[in-house]
Write a structure and sequence with these properties.
about 90 residues; mainly alpha; elongated
Amino acid sequence: METTESARKAARPWWLNVVWAGLGAAIVVLLAHGLFGFGGEATHDFLENWVSDAAVWVTAFVCLAGAAHAERSRAAWFIVGAALVS
């Protein structure tokens, strides 16, 4: 079973790790802003309008890319990606 998991991780493109790290950072910043007011009012518009929207679009792209490359559950990836785009 470990061989299959290792092969799957090795087949993952390097840029996908960068995307996941960026999305994780965006979530942490948005969470800190929402809960603790991180950045104050000066960054509110930027975080709410740009970072939040960018995170949704990047997630939609990842889902649609997953639909293009999935062997199974291709329809599920596509439906989630399409829902995020709409």
